[in-house]
Amino acid sequence: MEKALAVLRPPPDLTISDWADANRRLSSEASAEPGQWRTSRAEYQRGIMEAISDAGVESVVIMSSAQVGKTEVVNNAVGYHIDQDPAPIMVVMPTERDAETWSKDRFSPMARDTPCLQNKIANPKSRDGNNKILHKRFPGGHLTIVGANAPSGLASRPIRLLLCDEVDRYPFSAGAEGDPIVPHCVV
């Protein structure tokens, strides 16, 4: 009964950066500096995460140079929502191969090494189908990971949080379906 009520409880007044500073662990295989996440190491990320946390903000667009932590912002947003504000989430990468790589190399180590996420996502070795490479279920929501080049992955999905990474590498069109991100939220 407590688990059912937890899903109905409103999310705490906590921003994504607050959550990351308190909970996120950087994995040795996904970070040059493994251990506790500290937003203060890249302070400019705080404003981005706070904007994503703000219910009054519909879209956040980031235009920046490469390798400044945008994917880590995506990771923190996903981790926060799995832990604090469960919802249907979609992460869009340029290709299906990129989606698989992010799932295996970035998301899975984060979920494994961040204690508050460990028991919320099914064990990938279980046979119940709740934790696949491109689709993961957790209490109150799910995470779908797709490539922008795969129109079937982008269609007909009830998504509350859409996070698009490496948008400059997306194909001009997802086949006959048109632009893979317009009019969606972009990170």
UniProtKB/TrEMBL annotation:
Q: Which Gene3D superfamilies match?
A: P-loop containing nucleotide triphosphate hydrolases
Task: Recall the taxonomic lineage recorded for the source organism.
Answer: Bacteria, Pseudomonadati, Pseudomonadota, Alphaproteobacteria, Rhodobacterales
Question: Locate the Phage terminase large subunit GpA ATPase domain: which residues?
Answer: 31-181
Species in which this protein is naturally found: Jannaschia seosinensis
Give the protein's recorded name.
Answer: Bacteriophage tail assembly protein
Q: What Pfam families does the annotation carry?
A: GpA_ATPase
A molecular function (GO) held by this record is:
ATP hydrolysis activity
